[in-house]
Amino acid sequence: MMKKLIILCIMVVLIVVGANMYAPQIAEAGLYQALSGKMDIEPGDVHVNASPGLKVLKGDLDSITVHGKNFAVGDLRFESFDCDLKGIHFSPADSLMNQQLTMLHADSGEMTASIRSDDLKTFLTQKVNNLSDVSVIFSDDAVQVRGTVKLGGILTAQAIIQGSFGMNGNKLMFIPSNVIVEGMGMTFNGTRLGSTEIYDFSTFPLGIRPDSVTLHDNVLTIHGRVSNT
After folding, report:
1. Residue 178 in contact with residue 191, Cβ under 8 Å?
2. I need a labelling partner for 207 at 20 to 30 A (CA). Which of 107, 132, 170, 216 fits?
3. Distance between CA atoms of residues 189 and 176, nearest Å
4. Could you tell me the pTM of the whole model?
């Protein structure tokens, strides 16, 4: 009986020691799997802290840090991405089933991401709807998009779209403020043409929601916070 009890105690100690040592690393790998489906980042860009490591088995982490540079998200290239979360809670059962960390929420956290103007030009040139032969010009925090548009699917006209980058709900958008279409000697004004979705944060796995967007020195900077609503 005593021998069985000693063996049981040894097994419990080994499990506890193993959890303290390796559970945070397993959570880190699971988080990377969750993020890699959204962002073209490297495993070394993701760090998880939990002390004691045993708390990971309950679905709790002390902090998460993500730091990426020059990576792609779909057709858009980011210059940098930095995110720090505190007090993270996740579902161990769902994470084990999905083989990636399934985060429920974080107590607090912030994110800063940046995109170079050259990459934004490339993105807009390819993505602005209903325009061809697109060119993009940046001036301070304003953006001008020029291109050729079809009127009624037959006539060709030149479009000049003035706008800026901003949020529409959880979506980062290019939002026109003034649109001029010149064709057949006439000029038409409107704001519907040119509105373009750049990135949708609705399903972003860290619960981050952007709260400000600024364009300065040819770099678009997006700041966000944890949203638990």
Report:
1. yes
2. 216
3. 11
4. 0.77
Q: Compute the distance between CA of residue 37 and CA of residue 44 in angstroms, rounded to an integer.
A: 16
CA angle centred on 81, ends 79 and 84, rounded to 5°: 165
Residue with the two structure tokens 């792609």: 72
Cis upstream peptide for 24 (omega within 30°): no
Q: Report the distance separating Cα 161 and Cα 166, nearest Å.
A: 15
Q: How far apart are CA 68 and CA 223, in angstroms?
A: 15
Q: pLDDT tens-digit profile of 114-172?
A: 999 899 888 888 888 778 888 888 877 788 888 888 766 677 888 888 888 888 888 88
Nearest by Cα to 122 from 182, 74, 193 = 74
Tokens of 203: 């399903």
